[in-house]
Amino acid sequence: MAFPRKYLNEGEDIVLEQRPHWFFLAGPAAALLLALVIVIAVSARVAGDVQRLAMIPLLLLVLLALVWFVARYAKWATTSFVVTTDRLIHRTGVVSKSGREIPLERLNDVSFHATIFQRMLGAGDLLIESAGERGQQLFSSFPHPERTQNLIHHQIELAQDRDADRQAGRRELSPLDQLEKLEELRQRGVISQAEFDVKKAKLLDRL
């Protein structure tokens, strides 16, 4: 399920949406497959009353493995890691939901670790460090963490450039532009007529 766009801010776009690596499902999938193989082997080699007695615990084993797989798949399907142009978003939970959002400007560091086996699978661990009480958060079984690290750093640079452009735009307002802003504030009642006249006179002196 894709991340709902209704949760995005105005002008915000999704850059990356990830779920845990498929290896996250490997354990329960292997257990379910093994249980099925055992059931098939026993049913082919044993007959009569012995088969019926043996099949009861084996079918119970298959049921338990199936429940484990379904529960793990549900967690995989409801876990998302989203990178937008403004923030990181992490959501998880089947019945009870939990999530965390980190603005890009609050990120201190993004690092990853992958063993040789994980690199062969295209997986690894992604560590996010940010300002605040929960300074570190580890995302395990993460697909292609190195690519995600580079993408996040790139988005941080773009966000910093956008913020610098906004700051520069505010600094470079001409006296006429500032006069228009003052008139807007006066009409909204934010400043009084007397305050408007004083500031207007100062701006006109600069023309």
Describe the structure.
Helix content is 53%, strand content 22%. The protein contains 6 helices and 7 strands, in the order βααββββαββααα. The strands form 2 sheets. Strands 1-2-3-4 form a 4-stranded antiparallel β-sheet. It is elongated, with a radius of gyration of 29 Å. The mean pLDDT is 84.
Q: Report the portion of residues in β strands.
A: 15-25%
Return the average pLDDT rounded to an integer. Answer: 84
Low-confidence stretches: none
- Portion of residues in helices? 40-55%
Largest sheet, strands/sense/barrel: 4 strands, antiparallel
Précis, in short:
This protein has 207 residues and is of the alpha+beta class. The chain is built from 6 helices and 7 strands; from the N terminus they run E-H-H-E-E-E-E-H-E-E-H-H-H. It has a domain of 33 residues.
Strand and helix layout:
Blueprint: E1 14-18, H1 26-45, H2 48-77, E2 80-84, E3 87-92, E4 98-103, E5 107-113, H3 116-121, E6 123-130, E7 136-143, H4 145-171, H5 175-187, H6 193-205
Antiparallel strand pairs: 1-2, 2-3, 3-4, 5-6, 6-7
Features:
207 residues, alpha+beta, four-stranded antiparallel beta sheet, three-stranded antiparallel beta sheet, 6 helices, 7 strands, 53% helix
